Amino acid sequence: MKQVTSNPMIIQRAIIRYPHCHTPHSFNASKNDGDAEDAKYSAKLYVEQNHIAELAKAVKQCAIDAFGTTGTGIAMPLHPVSEDGKDAAIEQLKNMYYVNVKSSKLYPPRVVDINRQPVKEEDLNSGNIVAAIVRPYPWESRFGKGVSVGLNGILKLEEGTPFVDNYDSMYDEIDEKIIEQAKQADRERQNEALKSMNNPVGELSDFLNS
Question: With contact defined as beta carbons under 8 Å apart, do 136 and 119 qualify?
Answer without folding.
Answer: no
